[in-house]
Structures are given as structure tokens and as C-alpha cells.
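[Discussion] Sanity-checking designs against the backbone

I'm trying to build intuition for which residues belong where. Below is a C-alpha cell string of 578 positions. I'd appreciate it if someone posts a full sequence so I can compare it with mine line by line.
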């Protein structure tokens, strides 16, 4: 009776109940009931353990809730709001004071409303918080007032940089426009020139003349478009692009922003930064620039953009079309002497702790340093040599307490600076027939190329050496064809072209050369060789020649003429088109 009573009370399944009914004796029935009871006890123990753990967790949560309520009550009594609520109230107050278009304020208030509903522990809360920080810190309608004092601006530009007349005039023109029309859009200038001529430092001088903030952003090696336009907020760790960060850092919507090394932008699977700049550097489009992170229109039309590049070859044509190009050529010997006297000597003396009483450097010594210790269009190597000289003088005064003033003349340079790495370029006094002086453009400031031609008895073809590029090789063939076709006019025996080969060499042989501007020099060298008459030693020439004898214009005239002048050449033949 006890077994059957328990079986009716316990929640046994049908199979267990049937087995109990089929038990042959009391012992088997008791054994089956014992197993069922043990199974039920194990289930009850597990339930009890789970209930105990759940009760403990509920007790901990209740404890935290009570403590938080007490903390809130204490903060309320002290007049301190909860940190999260305080942040939201602070953001709301800053948004009310924000000087921005209504569209910006409306979007920011919508995001702030979302932020107030998101728990502080949520990752989305921090993303929205950072986003609203950027919105309220950007200078939407806040800019610096331009100083439109043109004489003062002219004095600042002249004080900071020597010469560069064209660029200074362009800046002063913009100041004049702003004086008549304060809402005029800022120009987008592109300074192109060899290294070391002062492109980057010119931007700081322009900002000082205008009375604006100056910010610089290097584009060299930049290959990710998102670096400029920012990442979308859906990405973890997203940030605005560099342009918006620079504007935020400047705290002004009209700074002078220099985009340095524009010609060294990268390009790969992550995007083309040059294409992203098409909108930024277009005054008709950048009035509503949308960063991927902000996704709000920001007016960049008041920003004074200045870009710098060493060459225009790698800049895409659509981007180049949006900028006003201003070229900075190399400096002449006289200009470098003046710049060294006015700027480089005081700066290097100051850094080395040397005064003008300790070291005297006359102009002829400076000219000797320029001519014999540097070969560049810019000034960096010259400044290094002056700095080296100043350090040697500083060492001498540091070693001797009673040092006497030192005057470094031309003859003393070898003692202080070592052997001259560059000899003074002198023209070839006696040039044999078949040699002509051409002029080449280089990033280091131009060079004189002596083109040499010689006849090869028994030869048949034209041989070209000197690491010439395809364009220069074609110029040589065009020059030969012109001379051959005009042999009678030049009093040349046409048989020489058929019976003898021609070898043209352009030293230095280890330096790659290319371009069409040596065509006239090659034609002159060939005509000189076939006629047996030497070219004048004091004459250099540059120009692209055609088969009909036209001489077409070329580039880099100033640099080429300066190179001829350095070499002692006083007579230069240029295309009439230049």
C-alpha cells in the first residue's frame, strides 16, 4: 500500500508506473520506488541550488539599486546632478550658444535627443557624445578678422622673404579685393618650385600678413581617401578627416591652410586622395563640404588654401585646373648672397651662440660658399654650410676663454669647410667643331650640357649615348634630318651623311636626361661638325627644333639662363616664342 501510495503522488511517467505494477514481489517494487525517489531528490537539489543563486543575484542587484538611489539623493542634497545628466545639460547649453546655421543646430539637437535616451553604458552613447563634441567645437560662423593694412602686409612679406615679387603682388591683390569686397572667395594658390626655395615658409608669412591663423597639413605619402574625408560613424573608432580636424584646431573658419607636397600623394585600393581634393579645392563646391563623419555641410570657401609641389607632372589635370599656379624658380648668386646676409647668417649665428663680433663673413666669402660648396636652386645646403662654419667658430671660442674675433675670407674656407666639392663652372674656352653648349632644367637649378658629335668613317647609323630618354633621342634624329635636308644651304657635302656614321654624346654619361629642348643645340653641334667650324665658346642655346627648322618655345628659361651665367657664359640663344 505504501509503494502504490507514493507512486500515485510522485510525477512518474507511464513506463515507470507500468514497471511498478508488473513487479513480481515486494522487494522488486521497493527497489523501483527507491530509484524513483532518489531521482526526484536530485532534481529538487538542483532546483534548490538554482533558486539560491538567483536569490543571491537579486539581492546584489537590489543592493546596487538601493546604493544608487542613495547616491542620487546625496547628490541632489548637495546640488550636484548625475554626471551623465550633467554632460547632456552642458551639451544642450553649448548647443544653444553655438553660432551655426539652423540646419546644423536642428541636426545637433536631434542627435542630442537621441543621446539622452541611450544608457551611459551603451557603446552608442560614447560615439554620439564624441560626435556632438566635434559639432559644438567647430567654428561654423567664427573667423578671424582680416588685417587689411596693405603697407603693413607689404612690409611683412618683404621682411620675411627676399624677392618673390610675383607672389607678394598676388597676396596684396587679394588684400585689395577683400578691402572692396569682404565676402570675396579666397584664392587657391599652388607654389611650384625646386626644394629649398621657401615655399612652405611663405605660407606662414602670408598668414602673418593677413592676420589669420596658419595651419599646415602634409600630403606626402597620403594614400587613403578617408584621411581627408573621414570615416563613417558606423566604423569603430571613426574620426573626422584631417581637413575638419585642422579647422577645429585653428578655431577659425578662414585660416591659411597649407597643403604641403601635393605632388607626392599616393594612390591605391583605398582610394585616390587627389580625387577627394577636387571638391575641397574648388571655390564653387567647397562652400558645402561634407565630411563622412560629420555628414553636415561645412563652408570651406573662406579658407585660404595654399598648395606646394616640386613638379606638376604627377598632379592630375582636373586638380591642377582648380588652382592658380605660381612658380618659384631658383635664386641667382646675388640673390643667395643677399638672403644669406639678411636671413641665414643671423639665424645660424643665433643657433650656434655666435655673435657678429666673433665672426665676420664678407660677401665675397658668401659668394664663394654658394659657388664652390653648394649646387642647388634653393638654400638648404647653403644654410648647412653657414651653420657648419658658425659651429666651428663656436667650438674655437668655447675652447679658448680669450678668443679673438675671426674673419673668414675666401682663402680660409678650405680650412673651415674642407675641400671644395664643386669647382667653379667655367665655359670651354676652345671648343672643337662638333661641340655646342645646351641648357637643361634640373630640380637642383639647371645645368649646362655640352653636346658632342663626331663622325665615324665607314659607319652607317646614328649612335646616341649619355643616358638619353626617348624624347631626347627623337630630337637628335630630327636635328640630323634637318641638317641633312638643308645640307646645300649650310654648305655641307651630302656625301658625308651617306659615307660616315654619326655619334652624339651628352655628358655626364651617368645622369639620365630627357626632353625636347636640346634639339637646337644638337642641330648646331651636327652642323658645326659637318662644316668643320667651331661654335662660339661664350654661347649657349635652348629650344625644340622641328623638321622644317622651326624653333619652338620651351620651359624653365630663368633657371637655364642662371645656369649659363654660373658657367661664365654671357650669350644665350632662346626661342622667339619665349
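Best answer:
Here's mine. Compare freely.
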Amino acid at each position: 500500500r505504501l509503494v502504490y501510495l507514493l507512486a500515485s503522488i510522485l510525477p512518474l511517467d507511464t513506463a515507470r508506473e507500468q514497471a511498478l505494477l508488473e513487479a513480481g514481489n515486494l522487494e522488486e517494487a521497493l527497489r523501483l520506488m527507491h530509484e524513483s525517489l532518489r531521482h526526484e531528490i536530485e532534481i529538487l537539489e538542483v532546483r534548490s541550488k538554482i533558486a539560491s543563486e538567483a536569490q543571491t543575484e537579486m539581492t546584489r542587484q537590489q543592493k546596487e539599486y538601493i546604493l544608487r538611489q542613495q547616491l542620487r539623493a546625496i547628490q541632489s542634497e548637495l546640488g550636484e546632478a548625475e554626471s551623465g545628466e550633467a554632460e547632456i545639460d552642458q551639451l544642450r547649453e553649448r548647443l544653444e550658444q553655438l553660432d551655426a546655421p539652423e540646419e546644423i543646430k536642428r541636426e545637433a539637437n536631434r542627435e542630442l535627443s537621441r543621446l539622452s535616451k541611450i544608457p551611459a553604458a551603451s557603446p552608442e552613447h560614447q560615439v554620439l557624445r564624441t560626435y556632438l563634441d566635434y559639432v559644438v567645437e567647430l567654428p561654423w560662423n567664427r573667423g578671424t578678422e582680416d588685417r587689411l593694412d596693405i603697407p603693413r602686409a607689404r612690409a611683412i612679406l618683404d621682411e620675411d622673404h627676399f624677392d618673390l615679387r610675383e607672389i607678394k603682388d598676388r597676396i596684396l591683390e587679394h588684400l585689395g579685393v577683400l578691402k572692396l569686397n569682404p565676402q570675396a572667395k579666397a584664392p587657391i594658390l599652388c607654389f611650384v618650385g625646386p626644394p629649398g626655395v621657401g615655399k612652405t615658409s611663405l605660407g606662414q608669412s602670408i598668414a602673418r600678413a593677413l592676420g589669420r591663423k596658419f595651419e599646415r597639413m602634409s600630403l606626402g605619402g597620403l594614400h587613403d581617401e578617408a584621411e581627408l574625408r573621414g570615416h563613417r560613424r558606423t566604423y569603430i573608432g571613426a574620426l573626422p578627416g584631417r581637413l575638419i580636424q585642422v579647422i577645429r584646431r585653428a578655431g577659425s573658419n578662414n585660416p591659411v591652410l597649407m597643403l604641403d607636397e601635393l605632388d607626392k600623394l599616393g594612390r591605391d585600393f583605398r582610394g585616390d586622395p587627389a580625387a577627394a581634393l577636387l571638391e575641397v579645392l574648388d571655390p564653387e563646391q567647397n562652400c558645402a563640404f561634407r565630411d563622412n563623419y560629420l555628414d553636415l555641410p561645412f563652408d570651406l570657401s573662406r579658407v585660404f588654401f595654399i598648395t606646394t609641389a616640386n613638379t606638376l607632372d604627377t598632379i592630375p589635370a582636373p586638380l591642377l585646373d582648380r588652382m592658380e599656379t605660381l612658380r618659384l624658380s631658383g635664386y641667382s648668386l646675388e640673390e643667395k648672397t643677399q638672403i644669406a646676409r639678411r636671413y641665414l647668417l643671423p639665424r645660424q649665428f643665433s643657433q650656434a651662440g655666435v655673435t657678429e663680433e666673433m665672426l665676420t663673413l664678407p660677401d665675397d666669402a658668401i659668394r664663394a660658399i654658394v659657388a664652390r660648396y653648394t649646387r642647388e636652386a634653393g638654400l638648404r645646403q647653403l644654410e648647412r654650410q653657414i651653420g657648419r662654419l658658425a659651429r666651428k667658430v663656436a667650438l674655437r671660442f668655447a675652447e679658448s676663454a680669450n678668443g679673438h674675433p675671426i674673419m673668414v675670407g675666401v682663402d680660409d674656407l678650405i680650412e673651415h669647410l674642407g675641400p671644395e666639392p664643386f669647382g667653379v663652372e667655367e665655359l670651354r674656352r676652345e671648343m672643337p667643331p662638333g661641340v655646342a653648349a645646351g641648357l637643361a632644367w634640373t630640380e637642383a637649378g639647371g645645368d649646362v650640357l655640352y653636346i658632342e658629335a663626331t663622325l665615324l668613317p665607314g659607319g652607317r647609323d646614328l649612335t646616341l649615348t649619355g643616358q638619353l630618354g626617348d624624347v631626347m633621342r627623337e630630337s637628335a634624329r630630327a636635328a640630323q634630318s634637318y641638317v641633312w635636308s638643308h645640307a646645300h644651304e649650310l654648305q655641307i657635302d651630302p656625301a658625308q651623311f651617306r659615307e660616315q656614321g654619326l655619334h652624339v654624346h651628352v655628358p655626364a654619361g651617368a645622369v639620365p636626361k630627357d626632353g625636347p629642348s636640346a634639339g637646337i643645340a644638337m642641330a648646331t653641334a651636327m652642323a658645326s661638325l659637318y662644316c668643320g667650324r667651331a661654335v662660339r665658346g661664350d654661347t649657349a642655346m635652348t629650344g625644340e627644333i622641328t623638321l622644317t627648322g622651326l624653333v619652338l618655345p620651351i620651359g624653365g628659361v630663368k633657371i637655364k639662363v642662371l645656369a649659363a651665367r654660373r658657367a661664365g657664359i654671357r650669350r644665350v640663344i632662346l626661342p622667339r616664342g619665349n
